[in-house]
Amino acid sequence: MAFWSSTSVFTSKVPRKILFMFTLSLSVTYLFYSLMSCYNSLHFPLQDNYVFQGRLVTEDATFVTLREKVYSASPGFTEFTQAVRTTSVPTVRERDDAEQRTVEWIRTQTSPTKSAAMFRPTAPEREHQEISTTDSGLRVNCTSDYGEKKLPQAIIIGVKKGGTRALLEALRVHPDVRAVGNEPHFFDRNYEKGLDWYRDLMPSTLEGQITMEKTPSYFVTNHAPKRIHSMAKDIKLIIVVRNPVTRAISDYTQTLSKKPEIPTFEVLAFKNRTLGLIDASWSALRIGIYALHLESWMQYFPLSQMHFVSGERLIVDPAGEMAKVQDFLGLKRIVTDKHFYFNKTKGFPCLKKPEDSSTPRCLGKSKGRTHPKIDPDVIRRLHKFYKPFNMMFYQMTGQNFEWELEEDGVSRSSQD
Fold first, then answer.
1. pTM higher than 0.90 for the full model?
2. Cβ-Cβ contacts under 8 Å for 205 (sequence gap 6 or more)
């Protein structure tokens, strides 16, 4: 051909071809690392073989997607590559014109202002910046708040002063659990605000992660079972229960710390102490009648959707109780004994990360209060009062929590 037969023309093309290949390489490299910077900021949930939405995410698949993005980053570059594939053998003049246009286009694309403008998103784009990691349309924000807000799939519904905060904090260590820190009180106090308001309180989650919240007062709220059932019939419910006598004393201790002027525990616990009439209308005692409250929940949910955690065992064997909870939620057993350290001062386990050498993280100052001294006779009478309700609760749940072993008047835990 004329092109190859003319040595002078061929040698004059060499510098131009080198410039073309060099600038093209720089442009593609810049695009590749820009995409990789966004890709590296993604954090996928821990799953076997990195399966995500039923697709196997591998390095090869990622490189295919990134390569497609590089070639589709600019219409001009796509038009150029398509022209190269579809054009027949060009003449010398056509090659000169094509290469000249290509060099000019690449110089324009790789100029500082052009490159910055190409990869600098507008304000709305920054809020919703996303990248597809598979050709199936998986989209994840390249920001710290990526994901989707969903209604909870599991709720810790009770009980107050049973150990719900300790359980929630332990669950939040799990990478596949996202939970609200504060108690939403949606189904007992804020129901009129609607599900959209409730959903907006939830943290963003990725596929495979569980959204959770805890509000212990739900367990003793009459209309909570029906409201939760209307939201999600298949939701999982977790109830942390504790010896009702110890729980009542802990409840009183918390109130006493806020209102030092309240009467003594003994005065509030009895309508008539001489006659031994227990005041079951006092909320600190009424909450502990677990069988009564559970009956309302069983009208809407089967026991298979409920899991009962022993507040006592959560203290002496937190890893064992956490294993059961993780199994109930369908989670891999990631939170183990390596995450706990028993704090003798507070009287319950503290959380730590196995890889950290820092001081273990314990619950706040509001946890671990020393209980006031209660008349042993009052404690014995309360055990006698709760015994039939406890027996009924054991029968309903199919579990024996052995609270009757404490009828000697000495609580297993003298702290809140």
1. no
2. 147, 148, 149, 150, 178, 211
